[in-house]
Amino acid sequence: MTTTNENETEWIQLAREGDQAAFGRLVGAYQTPVYNLAYRMLGNAAEAEEAAQETFLRAYKYLHSYDPKRPFSSWLLSIASNYCIDRLRRRRITWLPFQDELAAPVHVTSSPGNPEAIVERHEQKEEIQRLLEALSPTDRAAVTLRYWYDYSYEEIAENLDLTVSAIKSRLYRARRTLADMMEGGTDNAL
Amino acid sequence: MRCEQAGEMMSERLDGRLNSAAIGLLDAHLTECTACRAEWQRLQALDSLLSSAPLVRAPLRLRVQVMSRLERRDQARRTIVGGAALALGTIALALLVWAPAILGLLDVTGMAPALLSGGPETVAQLLAFLETTGRAALVLVEQFAIPLAFLSLCGLGTALALNTLWVGAVWRTRALQ
After folding, report:
1. Are B71 and A124 inside 8 Å of each other by CB?
2. Which candidate in A68, A139, B76, B126 could, as Cys together with A135 as Cys, close a disulfide (CB 3.0–4.6 Å)?
């Protein structure tokens, strides 16, 4: 994961002193990583947007407690993942069918490509979200941090407040579940 | 090697956490065990799918929405702080102006002793002390024959001065934020 650079250090310092413009630059720099984590965790665009906003608001509120020795991205993503885990746990009480949520329009990346490639990417994204939905909130966070942020086991453990050996078991268990789901999905398609 | 152990090693291998000796052991097991070989292929296919998925881009409006919510939150906080300051200042002003009259009224109606007897001992002692101090002040006032109206004007002036200082302090705090 990226480490804190000079500009970022300055923005953080200014934001801590109440400079909202400097905090806006931090939001600009980290909006996609935070949004992606929320999207992978929550599975739909509207909730991901809300979660990303809430993550940045909490970050601003608790900026005084940020330890500059730690990468800012890790601190921010830890706020995001914990918020999403809580939200998923609450969602279990007021359960919403995941497929209905996916039917809502999701943001498709604006990278160039022919229509078939765009559709393929969209289908791939939906397939991945279908798989992730089978995991518990914590396992989902572990898989997301591993694959989209290239976090080491130690970094995931720190982020989720678990031991390295717990992360090792969780990733193995999650992979088996996902592989079962993927196989099931393929069988159904055939 | 047990199949369960091989499974965990496969997962670690995908994450690049196995050394060459461990990879050799796993490969030897995969050569012998058909079930684990199939499992390895499944995990590799999954790894390939997840590894190829890009980050989902944030909508362009996200930053504007965050900054707008931050501004609204700050405004609400400033309103609450300002309102609290105004309320406290007004209460302080009212107490300073009306304190002699309230003390006198309580004394006349005999309510003060009743109120004091019902409260905790410490509070009662504190109020008793205040009452004694107030009486002493009144005696001094009588001794020096200062008109009550003049005393009220002094109280009002003091209250206004304190209130002005308080509002000034609140404005300076807001300016620093």
Report:
1. no
2. A139
Instruction: Give the orientation angle of helix A164-189 with respect to helix A137-148, to 10 degrees.
Output: 90
CB contact under 8 A, B39 and A179: yes
Nearby residues of A54 by Cβ (< 8 Å), 6 or more positions away = A83
Instruction: Identify the sign of the CA torsion A168, B46, A177, A75.
Output: positive
Average model confidence (pLDDT) across chain A = 83
Best mutation target among A11, A25, A53, A79 (most B Cβ atoms within 10 Å) is A53
Question: Is the minimum CB–CB distance between A27 and chain B shorter than 8 Å?
Answer: yes
Q: Give the separation between CA A72 and CA A4, rounded to whole angstroms.
A: 6
Asked whether the ipTM of the predicted complex exceeds the cut of 0.90, the reply is no
Interface contact flag, B43 A175, Cβ < 8 Å = yes
CB neighbour list of residue A129: distance below 8 Å, 6 or more residues apart: A40, A43, A98, A102
Q: What is the pLDDT of residue A31?
A: 95
Kind plus residue range of the DSSP H or E element containing B91: helix B62-109
